């Protein structure tokens, strides 16, 4: 059973490779982890810094060649054992995730299953890293391409999907032969600690999977970017921080993968199935209390169905229950902290002050909870139409023509995810090709899968996670030309 006490015991074992030992962490500083639903103290953890990060990098560097040299089948088998352990401990892991992040328990369980699916996918993909042969221009040589692991990888994961992000970044790196250093978000380190404990139990050798626990990420991020032994950075978080990391990596021309902010449009055309569109909007907007990078941030509805859609959406959203993630029937858990609540309040107040109509919700319930909210009569002058709200607020914007809504949907620096509902085939193709986004949900509000490439265009990121393409991001291509054959 992986309860919090067991996790704290794991911190005191030598699995963190010198960062913490039998006497506790090398650092004397600590930080607390709280439940966002009620503020309860969950754990006190060692607050690591640059010294511990360097130790982790050195450990990963020492383990890199032996790990890369192991047969792919060996790496695959360890990943598979890790997957099996995650599945075996779904109940405990889900409870940890709900306690530290707040999302309803069924959502936590779904996230852990999704995380396990990524681990399983890359356990299988480890054995499918192929090169190629090239027809040579003469008979005295042979030309071929091999693929090798990039090397030590520094990974930084966010608080909103703290289990699936660990699996989505770590498992492809480990599968192809990279070693990793993971720095999870300070709000949600316990689920990363639990998954690390299971990884060690699965059999990853010393130095292959290293964990940094810290309340502040700036100094650790700088060290990961500046240390020449780290060959790649993989980060999920805000576009602002992504820009900083990209600049810090530029001196070494270091490889980098970024999954950054989004401002996803959700478009409903006149020919859409309105009931299906309402269901899809609820999935795309209110999952994880709207705290997702692919959350529907701007809902555009064509005039012919605008009033019907707004009425039906508000009626369904008004039924969503708000409360502690462990309570039965709860659909909307807390926001992660006071700053998140304040941003949502500011967006709603700005919109209503500028003429938006409040169809349901609109206020803080108590503590970190906010009512699921629907606004209509929204225009682009309002914060909810141009800034990523990251909360349970659905702003509805009326539009007239397909050409107009495409211009509005693309009028952003972001290009992560988009959604639209329509049935006319010609329109479906035209809109799908015209939207400037890396992922598009057509007549669906959910599209993430371990088998599909996840990532964005423009300032929403670089690279892809998931699918075979996710493994390619951790590989180097080497051309071999063999003469005198």
UniProtKB/TrEMBL annotation:
It comes from the Bacteria. It holds the Pfam family Aldedh. SUPFAM superfamilies: ALDH-like (SSF53720). GO terms for molecular function: glutarate-semialdehyde dehydrogenase (NADP+) activity; succinate-semialdehyde dehydrogenase (NAD+) activity; succinate-semialdehyde dehydrogenase (NADP+) activity. Keywords: Oxidoreductase. CDD domains: ALDH_F5_SSADH_GabD. Its EC number is 1.2.1.16, 1.2.1.20, 1.2.1.79. GO terms for biological process: gamma-aminobutyric acid catabolic process. It is an enzyme of class 1 (oxidoreductase). The keyword Oxidoreductase applies. Residues 27-479 form the Aldehyde dehydrogenase domain. PANTHER family: SUCCINATE-SEMIALDEHYDE DEHYDROGENASE, MITOCHONDRIAL (PTHR43353:SF5). Belongs to the aldehyde dehydrogenase family. This is Succinate-semialdehyde dehydrogenase/glutarate-semialdehyde dehydrogenase.
